[in-house]
Amino acid sequence: MAVKVAVMGAGSWGTAFAKVLADAGTxxxxxxxxxxxxxxxxxxxxxxxxxPGVVLPANLRATSDAGQALDGAHxxxxxxxxxxxxxxxxxxxxxLPSGATLxxxxxxxxxxxxxxxxEVIREVAEVPEDRVAVVSGPNLAREIAAEQPTAxxxxxxxxxxxxxxxxxxxxxxxxxxxxxxxxGCELGGACKNVIALACGMSAGLGFGDNTxxxxxxxxxxxxxxxxxxxxxxxxxxxxxxxxxDLVATCASPLSRNRSFGERxxxxxxxxxxxxxxxxxxxxxxxxxxxxxxxxxxxxxxxxITDGVHQVCHEGLDPRELTAALLGRERKAERQ
Length: 335
Known about the structure:
alpha/beta, 8-stranded mixed beta sheet, 15 helices
């Protein structure tokens, strides 16, 4: 039986993941909010607004009709930003196919509710946790669209569903692994955006690789502390959805969060940095606040996340953040 997958969201990652599925031979339809984007993909095989220069597969279909995209889908991939997921999913809910696996590409924690994306999906769609999967790993959309080799993690508490998705997106340049630790994979994906902002600020201030490596390592430590408090498997943070995603996002100029943080480090205001991003979402700018609040709720110390929040939303100068982090009380590494 042919399997149909609907990818809801034609931004950079949604488009890249739809290409992955189509290149794997999966019947794939990509939903775009704007009709002109869907028409461009269908007619010219390009998405010039988000993936300029990338030729999309001939077997990838596109539409701006959500009902048409969702009709008969065995899996629904949600490729919208984390803070808009609830609103979009509520609108699509009446058309969601019964029994379909709901897959989150978003990496964040919802403001206000402090819910992970899988929790938002379960609540809005009223589905059990074993129908919700997440994709997380070192997956820079531009490199994947260029068919550069990469690996990722598909996490679902129902291992068989994860295996089905693994089969649907495995191809010559994209290698997915399975995991049942949804909590750990989601936290790794959400927190790495915040740490990437800090690494970008460091680069913008002119600091080098020692500083970046220190931020990555200590950022991973605070992510793992939060994961432990919320029941994640500690080994997840040493894998693709933890360290792998963190390194790629913190080190690459293709990372929106890294680039956004670099502008802040060079002295741009939040508004100027957002303007320079040309509408591309740096998820960590909002997630730093929700992750900070989540950490406070469970009593976990996350100094880098706290500092990034202060820079983004309380006017703290990145240089002051550097001094604050270096001036913290001395302690053993594993505390």
